Amino acid sequence: MDLFFGLLRLLSFAISIYSFLCLIRLLLSFSPSLQQNSFYAFLTSICDPYLYLFRKLTFLRLNQLDFSPIISLGLLYMLTQMLNTIIAIKRFSLGILLSVIVNFAFSIVNSFLFFLIIILAIRLIFLLLNKDTSSIWFSFDQFIKPIADFITKKFYKNSFYTFQKSLIISL
């Protein structure tokens, strides 16, 4: 039995290393100048097959934002957590699996809401300072406006409201 848990510990460690390598690959994708080396090519060759499994899921894309890397890394994290829990208590049950899944779902929702609040606050600040003429705000607005409108319409069903008012209500 110790051999089995030793193998689970090794598998958990390997998944953690793989997750870290995939995270590095994703971070390097934001810098084109860092993509021109053999290390990046190595990371691409080992991480992209896994990452592309989730990129095919179109519901994970919202305009220019692709949430598939978050989900793919989250699933690796969830698997690592499940293995570590099994190793710690020396048994597996459906309750453990459900606990890890609920924890993962809560973490994703929590992270998304935190990310949304930060983006809404930054957008509102730049709007109030009249520094919102950059083209990057158009991309942000495509993501923010439907969400802000959805929240605002819960409070103002039949009245006109400005984008600024919508951002304030959403926060």
List keywords for this structure.
2 strands; 76% helix; 171 residues; flat; 2 domains; two-stranded antiparallel sheet; mainly alpha
Describe the structure.
- With 171 residues, the chain is mostly helical.
- The protein is 76% helix and 2% strand.
- A two-stranded antiparallel ribbon has the order 1-2.
- Strand 1 (61-62) and strand 2 (65-66) form a beta hairpin.
- Helix 1 crosses helix 2 (38-55), helix 4 packs across helix 5 (136-155) and helix 4 (94-128) packs antiparallel against helix 6 (163-170).
- The mean pLDDT is 83.
- Determine the oligomeric state from the structure: single chain
Report the order of strands and helices.
HHEEHHHH
Mean pLDDT: 83
Question: Radius of gyration, Cα only, in angstroms?
Answer: 21 Å
Calculate the terminal CA-CA distance, rounded to whole Å. Answer: 52 Å
Number of domains: 2
Low-pLDDT regions: none
Helix content: over 70%
Strand content: under 5%
Q: Look at the helices and sheets and give the structural class.
A: mainly alpha
What's the helix count? 6
Q: Could you give the order of strands across the largest sheet?
A: 1-2
The backbone outline, from C-alpha atoms, is flat
Number of strands: 2
Major sheet summary line: 2 strands, antiparallel
Short description:
The protein is an all-alpha fold.
Fold blueprint:
Layout: H1 2-28, H2 38-55, E1 61-62, E2 65-66, H3 68-89, H4 94-128, H5 136-155, H6 163-170
Antiparallel strand pairs: 1-2
Helix pairs in contact: 1-2, 1-3, 2-3, 3-4, 4-5, 4-6, 5-6
